[in-house]
Amino acid sequence: MNAPSMYHPDESQAAFWMEVERLTEAGELRRLSGAFARFIATLGPAAGSVGMPLLLAALVLSELEGRGHSCLLLSDLAGDANALLNWMDDDWKALARSAKPLPRSLKGWLEKLGACEQVWQVGQLDYDQPLVLDGDRLYLRRYWRDETLIAGSVRARALERRDVDTPAVRRWLDLLFSSPAQSDLAGAAAQPDWQKLACAVALRGALAIITGGPGTGKTYTVARLLALLFATAQDPARQRVALAAPTGKAAARLKQSIDKALSELAERVGDALPLRELTGRMGAARTLHSLLGARPDTRSFAYHRGNPLEVDVLIVDEASMVHLEMMASLLDALPPTATLILLGDKDQLASVEAGAVLGDLCHSAQAGNYDAETLDYIRAASGEIVPPEYLGEGGPLAQQTVMLRHSRRFGGPIGRLALAVNAGDVDAAVAVLREGASHRDNAPDNAAVRWIEHAQPAQLLALAVEGYRPYLELLRAGALGQAHEDWVCRVLREFEAFRILCALREGEWGVQGLNGAIEGRLENAGLVLGSGEWYVGRPVMVTRNDYATGVYNGDIGLTLPDPARPGSLRVWFLEGDKVRSVLATRLRHVETAYAMTVHKSQGSEFAHTVLALPKEGGAVLARELVYTGITRASRRFTLTTPAPAVLGEAILSRTHRASGLRGMIER
């Protein structure tokens, strides 16, 4: 392939680059996308009937990467390409005209791109070209590499079968799982105990995926799985277990939930297993960046295939948030002998960065698709009988995936609303919301769900004042004789009881606009005192990993006085039952966090959650976003919509990310 050189577009490309610039100035294209297409042009011939399709494909591929896709389906370019980018139809037509001549069929696109020096076709000689053509999918090389690594590792782990003493496993599972309550039996008479079943499935392989919505007991199940792993290990005292999650808050919640469940289990198993002693050796749950040994200012990690993690069991919670590159790095660093347990809700929002790994891995979880061998094993090891509707001939991954289906926490209006949204049933969702509105004044206990249909900014700000008043009043009252850290814990927990979530970052109904407006309203109400960037009571979110201070992207803390240095401020972070702090002046990458995006809220739970949808829909508004916002609420949920029709549009719209991962695993 030719060496990179200065790129001088010829006259035939002038119209194309003018359109790219126009769309960039209009905010339809990232500037990076145009720059990437120009870079591709420097690597070889990029003119005429071959070059223009290449430049257009490179431009669209880069743009899609910024929207979370890992590849470009060439069949989409040959069909309704405008749907990919969610542009006005005239914008796509103008760009396509400027790039003529373009192929009219998938076969034509494959031939044109396959002839380009900048593209490597899988199966041919590889010259490290930046673009990869794998079947009908065009990739940036690093995403093709990541998907290939994940697919190979996942398939190998799913195929691996370990020796299991099924009678012993059955005895332990009967001890670890009590009989379901009569109320549970009435609602799920024909269903097996999916939690018990999941433990049996996880024990026989090097990989297990446990998915389910809020309240289905994912961490409850994993605590019992841990006890089972210790009970059946040849040398339990040497079993090395690591807990991890994408964010610090999710990691702290995972550790707290598992510790609580294990403490209850220790009473049940008694002298049969020294569970407290064994689990006491587990360290704190860590972020994935910390677990892998992230290095500042680089994408590389200390742990990798040449220097693998020293673990026997790795449990990763909130796996829906794990993006493609991180999952590839994790699997690359995991020793082949280790067991990987992925926990997450497949219906939540995918990661902010490229990929929808958990969604790809769990695509058949609802159907089960268990084969005869798996059914026989499940019955022998757990005593559970899988109903006929979950039988099938799924691949190896389906045999190691279990979906928990019975929510023990999400009954009532919040649960019914989440189910309706997840099913795409607009009428049912609206009925639940309006039912909550009709009961709001007469029966507060039934007001778990509220809908402000034609919301005005003033109404949202009033909700913020009332929602944040308790923590601010507690803060102003001071410690009143309590130990300082105990008081800090109380203030932080009171703050974590309420949160406003947004679909967007910008605009009047976005994070940036609302945070400024809320600050002003709280100051006018006399609840916030102080001026300038830093003031007592300011909640902040960390926006970039900072290894020097030990804070990570997504961590949320409160600005409080420094008891050791009068006049100084520290930001305090809640980690389970403990707190830690950093001097405010040392935190360079933070933003005010009275309101936060739904994406950033994943892994969190608030007693009262307010979801603020914008006036107009768009590509970001989809069913998964609304579902994720609803399921952050544990007791009360309020939906605010300045334009009620936006809710229906969002529920009917599903997030789709182009990926070749499923096909690679099956292949």
Question: Helix and strand layout, with pairings?
Answer:
Elements: H1 14-25, H2 31-42, H3 48-66, E1 72-73, H4 74-78, H5 82-85, H6 89-98, H7 106-114, E2 119-121, E3 131-134, E4 137-140, H8 141-159, H9 166-176, H10 182-187, H11 194-203, E5 207-212, H12 218-232, E6 241-245, H13 248-269, H14 275-279, E7 286-287, H15 288-292, E8 313-316, H16 324-333, E9 339-344, H17 357-361, H18 372-382, H19 396-399, E10 401-404, H20 412-422, H21 426-439, E11 449-452, H22 457-477, H23 484-495, E12 498-502, H24 511-524, E13 539-542, E14 556-561, E15 569-575, E16 578-583, E17 590-592, E18 595-597, H25 598-601, E19 606-612, H26 623-630, E20 633-640, H27 645-652, H28 661-666
Parallel strand pairs: 2-3, 5-9, 5-10, 6-7, 6-8, 8-9, 11-20, 12-18, 12-19, 19-20
Antiparallel strand pairs: 1-4, 3-4, 13-14, 13-17, 14-15, 15-16
What attributes does this structure have?
667 residues; 28 helices; five-stranded parallel beta sheet; alpha/beta; globular; six-stranded parallel beta sheet
What does this structure look like?
By secondary structure, the protein is an alpha/beta fold. Helices cover 44% and strands 14% of the residues. It contains 28 helices and 20 strands. Strands 7-6-8-9-5-10 form a 6-stranded parallel sheet. It has a 5-stranded parallel sheet with strand order 11-20-19-12-18, with helices on both faces. The protein has a 5-stranded antiparallel sheet with strand order 16-15-14-13-17. The chain is globular. The relative contact order is 0.10. Mean pLDDT is 85; it is low at 180-188 and 440-446.
